[in-house]
Write a structure and sequence with these properties.
alpha+beta, 11-stranded antiparallel sheet
């Protein structure tokens, strides 16, 4: 039989294989993070009819090349275009993640509980147990956990990322420990010069996250400042009038021994312990006059000078006192708490340091803007209520954060990625996943941070297929013509055999 028949058959087989690959590429043109494959051909072995011979100079005979006939074609390899990035699809889902590689090819690490696999498909969701999983297969996404001691990422062996659990669905409350007074105390304001004074309120939290409001009154002083050696400056008196809970009820209902308060004088004495116990009364002729402190402002510049119990200015070389403590710890005996571990906590309140240095005393048309705010002027130590989780997000380095309705943001973990010496050597196993082979390099079990080489993770986006349809259709035409040509070889070979058979009739 003719060798051309078998060569043509091998050509048909290899072109059919190439068509199979093209068909698979086109079928997956919309598959998330699909990487197109291509087929490479190689020639088969050759049958040598005669070997080559060298020339003989003495006889003048030249050399003769070998006579060889090829026996067809075979599939040399199927190459995956692993480094070709697909286009981006914007979804808006915070757990749709796209790997944007800078220098190397990165892969998400996923697990079915037994085997570790790798994928570029970043469509994830949070399952019923709070784990981050692949949407298509349910495989858990692997990454690094948060060190409970330091609160930072501990880059150890990767493990499933549980982003929602009973321990992180809420954020612990914090007691307020700082406050500051800012704005304008207008000397022409009638409330300041009136009987009840100008009212300021401070909202704050205790250790359990419950909210309270402290009420202050600022007024022009009644006392003649006989002790003030520096008469220059404007003086005002500030006192605490009450502390109420979130429902508007006063919490100053017991004295410091735990006995119920039944009269205003006893309540006033308790308020003085909280605010002005080391201060003095502004009006010594009134029994229930509150204790408080005198605030001094520079009469020329309007800037705050100091706060003191008698209106005096500290002597030369001393630093003016600009803050006073709201001693909420005095409420301890009436708010004693028995903890679950058997210990007793005297109070859920923390003392609050109130800073007056950012307030001013200038004319503002009789309209004061003086306010007292919780926290420092840069927003720290404000205290927080018990927070409920309201959202999850992933930043460009793969770190997962939870946000809470009390303003807290907590780090929950970090998505790790895998890198390989020869990413194209990975083996496709379906479901948009790959596994390692001897030619890809092994996974070390730890992974790397995606931003280690300048790469990043884009949240709310997915990587699409990198199949180039125009290229695939062109390859299809070439494959079709190659298949037709090999078919014609078989037809012509058959015709030659037919002619041979027809020699004997």
């Amino acid at each position: 039989m003719m060798r051309s028949l078998f060569s043509a058959v091998s050509g048909l087989k290899t072109h059919q294989t190439r068509m199979d690959v093209i068909g698979n590429n086109i079928a997956n043109v919309n598959t998330e993070a699909f990487k197109a494959s291509s087929v490479r051909f190689s020639e088969l072995m050759y049958q040598t009819m005669s070997t080559a011979s060298g020339g003989d100079a003495s006889t003048g005979t030249g050399g003769v090349n070998a006579k060889q006939v090829g026996l067809g074609v075979s599939t040399a390899s199927t190459m995956i275009n692993i480094t070709g990035a697909g286009s981006s699809e914007t979804t808006g889902n915070p757990f749709d993640l796209k790997l944007s590689d800078s220098q190397t090819t990165n892969f998400f690490i996923v697990s079915d509980g037994t085997n570790t696999m790798f994928t570029r498909a970043g469509s994830f969701y949070v399952d019923g147990n709070g784990y981050l999983c692949m949407s298509s297969t349910g495989y858990t996404v692997q990454g690094w956990q948060v060190d409970k001691t330091t609160g930072e990422i501990h880059k150890d062996t990767v493990s499933p990322l549980q982003v929602m659990s009973p321990s992180n669905t809420t954020s612990a409350p914090e007691a307020t420990t700082e406050a500051y007074v800012h704005g304008i105390l207008d000397k022409e304001d009638t409330d300041v010069t009136g009987k009840d004074g100008y009212v300021m309120t401070l909202g704050f939290y205790d250790d359990l996250g419950y909210s309270y409001t402290a009420k202050f009154a600022v007024s022009t002083p009644k006392t003649d400042f006989t002790k003030d050696t520096n008469k220059s400056g404007n003086n005002y008196f500030i006192s605490l009038t009450d502390i109420v809970d979130s429902e508007g009820n006063s919490i100053v209902t017991k004295d410091d021994t735990g006995k119920a308060i039944t009269d205003e004088a006893t309540k006033r004495a308790m308020l003085d312990k909280i605010w002005g116990d080391d201060g003095q009364k502004d009006d010594n002729n009134t029994t229930n006059a509150p204790k408080g402190y005198y605030m001094k402002y520079d009469s020329n510049k309007g800037t705050f000078v100091n706060i003191s119990k008698d209106g005096t200015k500290p002597g030369t070389g001393t630093t003016p006192v600009t803050a006073q403590s709201l001693k909420l710890s005095a409420l301890g005996t009436q708010y004693t708490t028995n903890n679950a571990d058997g210990t007793t906590q005297a109070s859920n309140f923390k003392d609050i340091n109130v800073d007056f240095s950012t307030s001013t005393n200038v004319s503002n048309g009789g309209k004061p803007t003086l306010k007292v705010e919780k926290g420092t002027s840069v927003g720290k130590e404000t205290g927080k209520k018990n927070g409920a989780m309201i959202g999850l997000s992933v930043d460009q380095s793969g770190k997962i954060y939870a946000s809470y309705d009390n303003g807290n943001t907590e780090l929950l973990g970090q998505i790790a990625v895998a890198q390989f010496a020869n990413a194209s050597g990975l083996e496709k196993i379906g479901d948009n996943c790959y596994q390692t082979t001897l030619n890809s390099g092994e996974f070390d079990g730890v992974g790397v941070a995606v931003d280690a080489d300048g790469s990043k993770i884009n949240s709310g986006q997915l990587e699409m297929s990198n199949v180039d349809l125009s290229g695939q259709f062109t390859d299809m035409i070439i494959t079709q013509r190659g298949f037709q040509a090999n078919s014609r070889v078989i037809t012509v070979s058959d015709t030659l055999l037919e002619e041979l058979i027809n020699l004997k009739r």
